[in-house]
Amino acid sequence: TTMSTPDLTTTLLSCQSPDPTVRTQAEAALASAEQNNLADFFVALANELAAEGKDLTVRQLAGLHFKNLLVAKDDVLQAEKHNKWKALPTEKRAVIKSTVIGAIRSPVQIARHTAAQACAEIATIELPYKEWPDFLTKLMENVTGSDNEDGIKISSLECLGFTCERIALSVDVPEIAPDVTDLMLTTIVDGIRADRPDTIRFAAATALRNSLAFTRKNFENENERNMIMKTICEATQSTDAKVRGAAYECISQIAFQYYDKLQSYMQTLFELTFATIRNDEESVALNAIEFWSTLAEEEMELIDMSLEYQETGQPVPAEQTCVGYVKAALGLLCPLLMETLTKQDEDADVDDDVWNLSMSGATCLTLVANTVEDAIVTAVMPFVQEHIKSENWRYREAATMAFSSILEGPGAEAIGPFVNQSIPVLLAALSDPNDLVKDTTAWTIGRICDLHVRSIPEETFPTLVNGLAGKLLNETPRVSSQACFGIHNLAAAFSNDNTAETSGTNALTKYMPQLLQTLLQVVDRSDASESNLRICAFEAISVLIQNSAPDVKNVLLQLLPAIIDRLAQSFNMPVLTNEDKEQKEGVQGLLCGLIQVIATKTTKEDIMPHCDLIMTNFLQVLQSKNATCHEEALSACSAIATSLEGDFLKYMGALQ
Fold it and tell me: Structure pTM?
C-alpha cells in the first residue's frame, strides 16, 4: 500500500509538529511508506513537490524528504541508497525524473530551489553511467531559452552546481563522459556572460567552480580554455560583489587544478587580483588573496616534488614544473600583503571564527615565505624594521605579524640574525598599551621559541623566561595563552638536549619552581576556559616536566601530592551544563597526564608512597563515561605499572 496524497500532505506537516507523539507517528508512517513501496513513495513525494497551489511548506518538506532518501554521510549507506534507486523499474524512474525536473520551472522560488537539490541527487547517481540523457538538455533549454524567467535559469544553474559538487564527492564512479562535461560547460558559461543579470551570473559562477573537477579535457583545448578564462575574468569586473567574489573562487580553483595552464593568463590575473586586494570590498579582496595563497601552496608542492625527482635522478615532467610565479611577483606582492596587515579589525574576537583581511594577508605571507624561503627576508624585513616601533599601533602590530609570518621558510643563516636582534624589542612590546600588539608579540615569541630557539642569545634567556612568566596571570586569557605557548616551546627545545644527562642540570632548572607554581595558578584563573588557556597551561607544565633535568626531581616530588589532590578535588566540580561536564573531564584527563609524566621522571621508590592515592583516583576517573579521560587514565596507569613492576599486581583486581 502507498500513502494517498491527503495522507502524505498531513504526514509531512505532522513531522514538524511540536508534539513529540505526533512527530514520532508521522516519521514512522513515512518510514513505513518507504519500506512498503519505494517507487510509489518517490512518485508521491515528487508529485507533492511539483503540485502548484499546494502549501509551500509541504512542497519544500516533500522535496527535502525526497533528497534525503538518496543522501547519506556514510559511504556504505550512500552506496546502499543509490543501489535502491537503481533497482527501481526504469519506467517508474522516468516518471519521477520528469516530475522533479519539471518542478525546477515552478513559479515559486522555494519550490524551484528544493527541486534543484532533489534533481541533483538523481543526476549524481545517473550521469556517471550515461543515464538520463535529457537532464542536461532540459537544463540547457531552461538557461538559454530567452522566454524563461530569470528564476528558472537560476534554479537550473543551481541544479548543475549541486550536481557537480555531489559527483565530485562520489566514490568509485566512472568519469563523466566528455560530451556531458561539454554540455555542462556550455550551459554554465552561457549563464556567466556579461549581458546576463547578476543573480544568474552568480549562480553560474558557483556552478562553474563546482564543475572544474571534471573539465581537464576542456582546459587542454586552448580555444575552450581561453573562452572559460575570458568569461571568468570579465566576471571579476561585475558591479555585483557576490559575482566578483564567486569569479575569484573559480580563479583560485583553477590555480589549484590547472596550475600548468596558467602561464598565458598570469599577467591579467596579477593585475586583476592586485587591484581587487587594494580597492575592492573585503569579501571580494579575501577571495583575491586566496588566489595567491593557493598559488603558493601549489608551488611549494611542486618544488618538493622536483626535489624528489632530482634525488631519484629523474627529469621533472613538464606539467609538474614550478614556474615560480610567487617569487617573480615578490617585489610587488609583499608590500601589498603588508598593507593588508595594517587593516586589522580591532573589535574582532579572535576566538570566534572571524576571517578578515589582515588574517588572510598574514596567512598568505606565511605561505609565500615557505615557498620562496630566504628571498622573503629582504622583501619583508625593511617594513618590519621601519614600523615595529611605530607611533601607530596598527603599524606596530602589522610589523610584528609580518615578522612572525616569515619565521618559517628562510634558513637560520638568513633569518637568525634578525631573530637575535628582535628579542629585546619583542620583550618590551609584551607591555605594549595595545592588547592586539601584546597578543601578536607573545605569539611571535612563541614561534621563535618553536622555530629558532638556537638563534636566541644565551644572555637573553633569563629575560625571555621572566618576560613570558610575567604575562601569565594578569593579562587577557589570549595574551596569557600565547605566553604559555612560548614557555611550552622554550621547554620543548630541551627535548634533545643531552647536557642534563652528563651535568645533571640544564638552563630550565633555576626557573622550574616558579614556572610550575605560576602555571598551576593559571589553571585556576576564573577565565581559564577562554582562549584555550587552561589546556595551554597544562601542556606547558607537562613539557616542562618532560624536559626537566635530574636536579629538579625534588621539585616534581613536591608537586606530585598537589596534582593528586587536584585530581581528588576535581570529582566535586559542579556539573550544571554540558560545558561544565566537558571542562571537568578535560581537567581530569590533563591531571592524569601530568601524573604520568612525573612517573616517568622519578623512580619506583619516589613514587611508591603515593601510589594508593593515585590509583584510587585513577579508578574513579575510569568509572566516568568519557573516552578521552579513560585513555589518559589508562595511559597513566601503564606508566605507574612500568615504574612499580611486580608491586603493581595489587591494583590489578580493581582494574579488571
Answer: 0.85
